[in-house]
Task: structure prediction
Amino acid sequence: MMTNEELWQSVLAQVQFDVSRANFATWFKNTKVVSNKEGEVLISVPNTFSKEWLSSKYQSLILKVLRSCDNNIRLISFSVESSSTCSPKARPQIQSDDSMDSQLQFLELKVNPITNLNPHYTFDNFVVGSFNELAHAASWAVSEKPGHVYNPLFIYGGVGLGKTHLLQATGNKLSKLSPNIKIAYTPAERLISKIIESIRNGEIENLKKKLCCLDVLIVDDVQFFAGKEKTQEEFFYIYNTLYQNQKQIILSSDRQPSAIPAITERLRSRFEGGMIADIGCPDVETKIAILKNKCDERQINLTDDILEFIAINIQKNIRELEGALSRLAMYQRINQKVPDILIAKKLLKNIVVAPQKSTTFKRIVQAVSSFYEISQDDILLPTRRKEIVKPRQVAMFLLRSELKESYPSIGRRFQGKDHTTAMYAFEKISQKMEEDQVIFNEINTIKQKIYSEL
Amino acid sequence: MKFEIIKENLKKAVSICERITRKTLSLPVLQNVLLKTSGNFLEITTTNLELSITWKILAKISKQGSLLLPATFLSSILNLTSSEKIEATEENKNLILISENQETQIQGHDPEEFPIIPKMEKEFIWQMDSVKLADGLGQVVEQAAFSSIRPEISGVLFSFQKNKLKIAATDSFRLSEKTIFLEKSGAKDLFFICPQQTCRELIAVLSQEKGVVEVSANINQICFEIMGDRPDQIKCFIQSRLIDGEYPKYEDIIPKQYLAKIQINKDGFVSQIKRAGLFSGKVFDVKLSTFPNEGKIKLFSQSVDIGKNESYLPCKIEGQEQDSVFNYKFLLDGLNNLKSSEVSLELNGSDGPACLKPIGDDSYFYILMPIKQ
Result:
């Protein structure tokens, strides 16, 4: 028995003598036999014109040749195959010509519209250090064996430390390894607005159906689910369906599941049911490695002492490192020379010094109260309600540690509390931070909140 | 085949058909138009295997038949024919045209050679005013990308939402969107990507024929049908393949805020940009700076070989001082798409998207990215 390919070749071999060359090239281009079952041959053609032409002009000729190869063939039919299925995602990187080099593009257009993944984020350009080793290893494992190792994978860590990068890299690797896998990446906010919209249009079942047939669902920043009960309910359903079918779920948040306020217990326990990995603050060595990586990417040369200076002086967050680098890159472009350490210090003065000075009492209170989801007035009340006491102590701790305020003045800010109360709060939290990882993480997250939303 | 027809109608149809036959080289038969009688109508069809245009013209037909004729040649002949009425007879694959004091014989080809235009099943149908559609398409069609690397943005997005049709195009440097309001909602919200050339041809046809356009589509084809109100008016069908793919979710690109917003007279702005453009460098860069306190903007351009130019334009302005560098051609393209005399431009610094809008018309915007400084 001949293969489909051989069968079609023998047809083409015969037909080329009966048809003019231009016609042959036009109508038989990109045609092939797709299946040969029970005497029925299905031929795929690239467009409807070819279909019309072949079926009305060459049907009998093709059938004759096919029958001479295989006597069982009785029927042929044609189907139009769209171009995208013919050539699977062979999409070369867009190379813009030189004159367009500096013209900026809409970055959003590089995002794959089906999976919502940005191809820029890969494991290759993710720098691993002790602070994110676990999260990286877990993501890597998931990308090798989705649905089987860690399900769900829950990654948490502060702003700008690479959660999104890791999530997207996992998705990108998955889609590279198995191109047919159905992946969707969505920030939680977008999922929420989608759910709301589909409830309004009465299409929630469609949305659920669509999400439930995914192989991998990646949701970024799930802490935004807090307080959105209907969304949680729908997400719970989607989550369960996927989980039961052994589909991979990957989530991220700025804090661990137990610290996300106002999510239902059943959802929380499910978040905690798989692998929880945290991303901490990078150490100086890792920061230098990240900077070197970024320098290569942007093709800028900076001396090691500058990189070290940036790494030491920019404490918290990788996005800020990038900001610092951008500044230096700009300098290099304008002045056509590599900045030395003195110039670098001058250029980065505002970035480096800014965070310490930019905090205020109001900012700290705001960050603390929004983290613990209480109102800003409540935190200042002289009450002993448990849900207020802890945030108040945290706020006092931060006022002392970040603003270096005196204990009596801290006391006065909280409606005339005694300075000993402030001292007690500071010591208690300091001590707790050493003993309890949860508090440590909470404080770090709040600190980031204070400094990041500038 | 034998028929009598009003020359002007035939000329109009053939001249538009001729536009697409010029660009096909692979299959010589595509350089022809198919003339075919059907009842009391003469049908004129042409195709490039991506789109096909069919005109239906009322004619006095005494003998049915069909014939293939070279499009460019026929168009030239008709352009040089002065009489109002033409009598045409087919004899042995030749078309004999008889008009006042003139007799022409054109050699034709066997109509069997011509591709068969696929029959299309109309699954979804919408109706709209031809002028609105033509104007709207004209405002976006040129922003579609030329490249074939990303087929999904090489076309124009048609997105039907209840009683609205949004058409949008982007080449990843700029994006334009027009909203057209429909009198009747369609049955279903749908979107599809229509090839740029189809849209250009559609605009050309709509500039000739006004009336109601019926848009119908199925999964891989779209059809525009222009129906005349009077029985003697020409009917035209444009049928085209659709581009397969998922259009990017461009809603994220639309800037929601701005650093500075100016409102300015369009003509004055255009002429100053053109002037600045003369001095621009090889990336066509012109720098636009805002001075809200003084109520003016500055256009600055400089080129090593030519010199430099600086001009100030007074305008209504709010927001802060900021600079953006633009490709002045992109800026002009956007301004030329705007129909109002006053326009607003929202700026977002040196690396954020800027947004052009006509004043007093919310149905259109044009977003463009600046050039890196």
Q: What stands out?
A: Residues 300 and 333 of chain A are 9 Å apart (CA to CA). The two ends of chain A are 72 Å apart (CA to CA).
